[in-house]
Amino acid sequence: MVARDWEWDETLYADSAPHYAVGRMPYPLSLADAVRKELGLDGRGRLLDVGCGPGSLTLLLAPMFEAAIGVDADRGMIVQASRRAGETNATNVQWRQLRAEDLPADLGTFRVVTFAQSFHWMDQALVARRVRGMLDPSGAWVHVGATTHRGVPGDDPLPHPRPPWDRIDELVAGYLGPVRRAGQSLLPTGTRAGEEEIMRQAGFTGPTRIEVGGNRIVERGVDDIVSAVFSLSSSTPHLFAAELPTFEADLRRLLTQTSDSGRFSERTREIAVVVWRP
């Protein structure tokens, strides 16, 4: 369970938004295909992506709907999402800076509501009840669980060295301490668990489970790995305070010592798609 004294605060992802889009590996197209097939999407209805971050999932799925709305509590994430939407000419997407706990916020009803790597930060029971009331009777809640900042460990040969994640973790702990940070608080035992019980108590049925997208080999550079570290709530830039330049220099030194070319390879992890019905 999450630490009892942990509460949401606006610094959770402060300064990480510019790094998120660079340091997180993109979702594969097969994720969109799997969601389309499972839900029978045909271009109709609306999508709501809750905790949308810089819009990675929102923009992937938006073409399958008449309209989409991405909401996130962090202003920087909304700024990045809007920028990326403009770059990809995604004209059917709107963005709102909004905490999930403040839903429904007069947004209306939706065919699909998605959560990607975000639900564990919320008041889950409250959000589940409110989102259920925002779904069309034949709609669906889609939870996307993925680790996109780093690949799977292994010793099989790849085109380039793997990032030294164990040593990166040690370096972060050397600056920030051994207990995981989260905004102004600590998470000694991790984030919330027990999602299935919460969903059933809120009146959802299911779930249906799908796995997609694993075992791709992705090439990454030093900047990508640095941004991956800074994209995490446990090592977002503001946590390092005055030591940020020194930490980043140490991190870059470690990476260039690991790979002379500055290039790395990783195998992607499978993405879990969990579908609940209201």
Secondary structure blueprint with pairings:
Elements (H helix, E strand, L loop, with lengths): L16 H7 L5 H11 L6 E5 L5 H6 L5 E6 L2 H13 L5 E5 L12 E7 L7 H9 L2 E11 L19 H12 L4 E2 L2 E2 L8 H7 L3 E8 L4 E5 H9 L13 H15 L4 E5 L3 E7 L1
Parallel strand pairs: 1-2, 1-4, 2-3, 4-5
Antiparallel strand pairs: 5-11, 6-7, 8-11, 9-10
Helix pairs in contact: 1-8, 5-7, 6-9, 8-9
Key structural traits:
single chain; 278 residues; alpha/beta; Rossmann fold; seven-stranded mixed beta sheet
Could you explain how this protein is built, in words?
The chain is an alpha/beta fold and 278 residues long. It has one domain: Rossmann fold, CATH 3.40.50.150. The chain has helices at residues 17-23, 29-39, 56-61, 75-87, 124-132, 165-176, 195-201, 222-230, 244-258, and strands at residues 46-50, 67-72, 93-97, 110-116, 135-145, 181-182, 185-186, 205-212, 217-221, 263-267, 271-277. It has a seven-stranded mixed beta sheet, with helices on both faces. Strands 6-7 form a two-stranded antiparallel sheet. Helix 4 (75-87) links the parallel strand 2 (67-72) and strand 3 (93-97). Helix 5 packs across helix 7 (195-201), helix 6 runs antiparallel to helix 9 (244-258) and helix 8 crosses helix 9 (244-258). The chain starts with 16 loop residues before the first helix and ends with a strand.
